[in-house]
Amino acid sequence: MAIQEIKVPDIGNFDEVTVIEILVKPGDTVQKEQSLVTVESDKASMEIPSSHAGVVQELRVKLGDKVHEGSVLLTLDVAKAQQASAQNSEPNQPPAQVQQAQAAPKAEAIEQAAPAVAASMAPPAPTPASAAPAAVAPAAASLQTPHQPDRSAQLVHLPHASPAVRRFARELGVPLEEVQGTGPKGRITIADVQAFTQAVMRGTLQTRAAAAQRATAAGAGAGAPGGAGLNLLPWPQVDFAKFGPIERKDLSRIQKISGANLHRNWVMIPHVTNHDDADVTDLEALRQQLNEEQAKAGIKVTLLAFMIKAAVAALRKFPQFNASLDGEQLVLKKYFHIGFAADTPNGLVVPVVRDADQKGILEIAQETAALSQKAREGKLTPADMTGGCFSISSLGGIGGRYFTPIINAPEVAILGVCKSHTEPQWDGQQFVPRLMLPLSLSWDHRVIDGAAAARFLVYFTGLLADFRRVSL
């Protein structure tokens, strides 16, 4: 018997991630690169594949565990896999067993998810006033108990629910440990999750996290005289259906996460935005020439590649833009990782081009195209979206003139780009048509002052007007 430990590989700049699904069990035969567990960070979820083929001997993790790079997930008997590959008398048997093992949980997930799909397509049935509170009464009672059970003790016995129900709860942001299961042996069903959500929305139930936040907010408001606390009016509760037909649609997971981050950044960072236009007439001619030359190589150069390179030059000249606040200190970075906003069917994500100062225009163009494709397919890893120094958000393919991009904390500035347009410009003797690119620079006033922001944007527009200056 040859035992191989399967460990968590490099997961990017995350100290730890949470195990949300376990895809194998002891005795299962797994192939190399077959997914073993699903982990989740605050930005993305990803499956961790097996580095070896073999038979699962022991699981070293359970649902809810926190793991990090190097953590042991399970042990494999690789000798059995080698013996199976050497014995070709029944070559079809092991793959068939693997397919059956994989098909079983998938079938269960589909069976469990079917009621949710049907429920979302059908109009909601009226529920007696006493039904929903009764379904969640134990959870409500636990909120009123002054002494909460220890969190680590709760995780020893995670809520009894199928992967499909867990996925449904994650999409809604429902804490399963607070839901009372009505299925066999206390199993949590999709109906239980829906009843819990309805009770929270009606205000008859409050999650533990919401209760803690309100308690904190109340304390901050009470201890902040003169209006320093955010004692805002409650959000208006409106029955929109009485005004006309409506349709409810759940936010995507990316929208939920990015929405909370954007709200925090907008409230906590004192934003100021400068606007200017860059003359990109000559740069556009160069871009078209490069695309003609690189057509056979399949490389398509966009203005984004030039702007990333120009951003590196501007960050070199104005290092306070390549910085982050850390308490009462300013962290000045000596590396140049540039993020760019990528639009996907599920929402906006920001992949990062690492070490952009060490790459040429063609290499940056290829990398941004590859990252954009991964973003559309939902295959970006946490490492693809962390470590940025400065971000570029481009609406050039859509339109508009100017806008106020929200800074991506902990960065201190972000550049917004709109659609270029031809307009007359005075050359000293006459008006001539020039291609102008609208730019909007948002910056953190705690770190950057107005004069520095104006100089940065003037310098950046000058680079785009004469790209030869990038090499100076």
UniProtKB/TrEMBL annotation:
<dbReference type="InterPro" id="IPR036625">
    <property type="entry name" value="E3-bd_dom_sf"/>
</dbReference>
<feature type="region of interest" description="Disordered">
    <location>
        <begin position="83"/>
        <end position="109"/>
    </location>
</feature>
<keyword id="KW-0450">Lipoyl</keyword>
<dbReference type="GO" id="GO:0031405">
    <property type="term" value="F:lipoic acid binding"/>
</dbReference>
<feature type="domain" description="Lipoyl-binding">
    <location>
        <begin position="3"/>
        <end position="77"/>
    </location>
</feature>
<comment type="similarity">
    <text>Belongs to the 2-oxoacid dehydrogenase family.</text>
</comment>
<dbReference type="GO" id="GO:0005737">
    <property type="term" value="C:cytoplasm"/>
</dbReference>
<keyword id="KW-0808">Transferase</keyword>
<comment type="function">
    <text>The pyruvate dehydrogenase complex catalyzes the overall conversion of pyruvate to acetyl-CoA and CO(2). It contains multiple copies of three enzymatic components: pyruvate dehydrogenase (E1), dihydrolipoamide acetyltransferase (E2) and lipoamide dehydrogenase (E3).</text>
</comment>
<keyword id="KW-0012">Acyltransferase</keyword>
<dbReference type="InterPro" id="IPR000089">
    <property type="entry name" value="Biotin_lipoyl"/>
</dbReference>
<dbReference type="InterPro" id="IPR001078">
    <property type="entry name" value="2-oxoacid_DH_actylTfrase"/>
</dbReference>
<dbReference type="Pfam" id="PF00198">
    <property type="entry name" value="2-oxoacid_dh"/>
</dbReference>
<dbReference type="GO" id="GO:0004742">
    <property type="term" value="F:dihydrolipoyllysine-residue acetyltransferase activity"/>
</dbReference>
<dbReference type="InterPro" id="IPR023213">
    <property type="entry name" value="CAT-like_dom_sf"/>
</dbReference>
<feature type="compositionally biased region" description="Low complexity">
    <location>
        <begin position="95"/>
        <end position="109"/>
    </location>
</feature>
<protein>
    <recommendedName>
        <fullName>Dihydrolipoamide acetyltransferase component of pyruvate dehydrogenase complex</fullName>
        <ecNumber>2.3.1.-</ecNumber>
    </recommendedName>
</protein>
<comment type="subunit">
    <text>Forms a 24-polypeptide structural core with octahedral symmetry.</text>
</comment>
<dbReference type="InterPro" id="IPR050743">
    <property type="entry name" value="2-oxoacid_DH_E2_comp"/>
</dbReference>
<keyword id="KW-0677">Repeat</keyword>
<keyword id="KW-0670">Pyruvate</keyword>
<dbReference type="Pfam" id="PF00364">
    <property type="entry name" value="Biotin_lipoyl"/>
</dbReference>
<dbReference type="InterPro" id="IPR003016">
    <property type="entry name" value="2-oxoA_DH_lipoyl-BS"/>
</dbReference>
<dbReference type="Pfam" id="PF02817">
    <property type="entry name" value="E3_binding"/>
</dbReference>
<dbReference type="GO" id="GO:0006086">
    <property type="term" value="P:pyruvate decarboxylation to acetyl-CoA"/>
</dbReference>
<dbReference type="InterPro" id="IPR011053">
    <property type="entry name" value="Single_hybrid_motif"/>
</dbReference>
<feature type="domain" description="Peripheral subunit-binding (PSBD)">
    <location>
        <begin position="160"/>
        <end position="197"/>
    </location>
</feature>
<dbReference type="InterPro" id="IPR004167">
    <property type="entry name" value="PSBD"/>
</dbReference>
